[in-house]
Amino acid sequence: MLLEREPELTVLRKAVLEVESGRGALLLIDGEAGAGTTALLRELVRLGEDAGAHVLRSGGAQSERQFPLGVVRQLVLPLLAARDPLVPDASRAMLGVVSGGVGRNPGDELGTDTLASVLHGLHTALTGLSAGRTVVVAVDDLHWVDEASLRALAFLAARLDGMRVLIGVVLQDGGSSRDPLVREIADAATHRLRAEALSEQATARLVVDRFGAGSDSEFAAACHDLTSGRPKELRVLLDRAQAQRLRGRAVEVERVRELGRSFRRERLLRLLRRDRVVHTFAKALVVLADQATEDLVVRLSGLSRDECVAARSVLWKARLLSGSGRLAVHDPVLTRVVTESLEAEESSRLHRAAAALLDEYGAGPEEIAVQLLHVDTVRDAWEVDQLRAAAVAARRRGAPDAAARYLRRALLDLPMAGRERADLLVELTAVEWDTDPASAVRHIEQAAHLMPDHRRRAEVVSRTPLHMAGIDRRLADLVREVSARFDDPGALRGYDRELALRLEARSRYAAIQDPEALASAGDRLAELGGDAALGSGAERELCVVLMRAATLNGQIGTGNIVRTAQQVLDHEPTHSAPISAALQILPWMLLVADAGDVASSWLEAALAHAQRQTKPALAALIEAQRGLVLLGRGDIVVARECALRGLELADRNKPETMLVPAIAVGTLALELQDDTLAERVLEIAGSDTDLRMFMMRRCLRGRLAAARGDLPAALAQFLDCGRVLDGAGWVGAAVSMWQVSAALLHHRLGRTEAAIELAEENHRRALSWGAPTALGRALHTWGAVTDGPKGIKLLRRAVEVLHDAGSPLELSRTLVTLGKRLQSAASAEGDQLLVRGRRLAEQSQAFSVGEHAGGLVRGVTPTSDPVVRSVLTRGEAKVAELAARGRSNQEIAAELEISRRAVEKHLTNSYRKLGIEGRSALVAALGVS
Description:
By secondary structure, the chain is mostly helical. It is 66% helix and 4% strand. The N and C termini lie far apart (89 Å).
């Protein structure tokens, strides 16, 4: 049954009737493979037989194209073998060569006279045969017919006038462009019809005929989608579905799709095996991939341009190529099948040739290197240079994984020893620090041992990222080994001194948990000198590492830290942020020194540079550090957003990139008493070998345990944290928050002496450090665990310290604690302090305020919803509130002890940030009653 073929059948009937009237004709049936062209040819044969015609059948085959007269032999032999004398003796004599041995072997040569005899014999035979009745000559797959037979068919096509002969030929799409004789025959057609694909409705009807009326439309739609309505493919698919006992139901759609994909693959394999030109074209196209152009495919394949056009047409009509006008694979099955068909040697040859062609046509290094990734061996210096250049290009566009892939391929065939291998390992390591730090450490070790002298080894090791020296023990050992063989930097000059300083920075960074190394940091920092000694990157790097060590050990005060940090940032270019110790270390130190604003503008510039370079890991680090700076400034909401954005940008599969964002979010969780943030940080995978993360985890676990009411467990966490930190020499106030929490927990558990002892020790450390927030918190803690007038006096002192320059959050909590203490003595001042503390907390957009940080003291009080004051700095908020309460600029300046010009500047900034026009709108904007 032929569905949706009425117009085609009409053409077939008309052609048969015309020929019966004595007019010879040539009928061309074309269409893509599987569209039903052969079925229409069979229908032509049936119509001819019904009309009493003599039918001669033949067909071309790719495997038989080398056999001359193969198709003519199929037509003639039945005539010569018939009992009745259908062929005149003269014609039989001319066709004798066909029944003989000529042409039965591939490549047999036919002389001009022999071929001419066959052509005339065939013509006279058909002329005589058609005198008695109509003759239908049916030839399938004209594009695979041998050349001699094509000549015979072309000879007949030009001489059909007056003969009752109908020649019907099937030509697959793209076949006419391969051979001039095929085109000549196609152009001689008097009737043409095209086998089109079936519609969805016809496909659904065939599905119903096969599976019954219970089949679902979804199943039929899937069958149509898989075959595009090509009848032959549809029949095969339905046969296979029936063999798999499918019933045409919607639940079986995925199973029939799997059958369709398998069949599509088989059909493609048959096409490639059958058609050498298409296969050769497909190989070149797949090898060139995104770089494929018509010229390149012609050059790489070795085909003629006409052959490439024909092959492209076949693949496009098979829906394997894109229809966008450019050479591109549409169906990935083509790439998979062609790639699997290529043997290793041929694949390597094609990819190497493609690389050379792309270079000739001016392609970029990465386009060339993509081809070299698939060769069996990298043979010469040109190929190595191309891979190295591609790695540089990949790094510039922010693709370190691709860069590493190019360099690993270049290394694969190099000798295991030698300077070239060492240099390539160094280049690879520079890429792998961002993508695969474990491999980077292994490769830097290999490169160091391959270097010819100690100076070159020092150059290699000094390029390692600073933070990695503190993470990987093998790298730390390598740094110490190389550093030990270098002279004292003080005795060196120039480049050698730079190397020695960088090695010292890494060695000291790796020894961050060594009390002896920490103890010497302050003296070494003094040796470096002041601003004049920070001109080189190596000096600044070592300076920052020493500042960190001295801060952890409590040897240096905030004044020196802030002053030196400012000097470092003044010299440090923001584009050096990816490898900068300033970015890794300074923001945290400035936060605990109450001087985060010192790094603010530098971080903004570094972030802009990172965003231009599209480096997510670097952006994650900068965002996290900005969060710390904003936290210190009192911009709580923005600080939270920045820290969380840093956490989102960091790669969870690379713990080293998660470290700083996790610590930033953890710091916010502790400051804001945010249990959700705390749990999020604790969910991050990673070990506690990094003491910073160990400290953060212990403090967060203690915080959560206290919130659950498990005070002994909470205290154990903080005391364990302190024991480890003190053992490592981390005894500075900057890392002594555990003392605050432990003292408060001791107090809640009734252990007053232990609480006071810890609080006093924390106060001593804070005094030595000198940061207002640390000192105010220490006084707050001491006052909270001390009863009576002394406790109140300590709390008042804490308020004084924090009011001038400390953290607004810590001040708000201290005010609440003092207010509650005074309330218990029936003091009106207590009510005022409580209101003031809660208002300050609201202004800072704190989420809750208790009597002390961490919620470790009872009396946590929820605040109102965040208000617009969060966009203002602390100074702007103070000035704006006073202005909203009716104070003049002069009164505000006198009360805050600032200039009138500063008041005007703060008010102007407040109007801009709040989107208002003047002082009169401040009352509503700030909610001041």
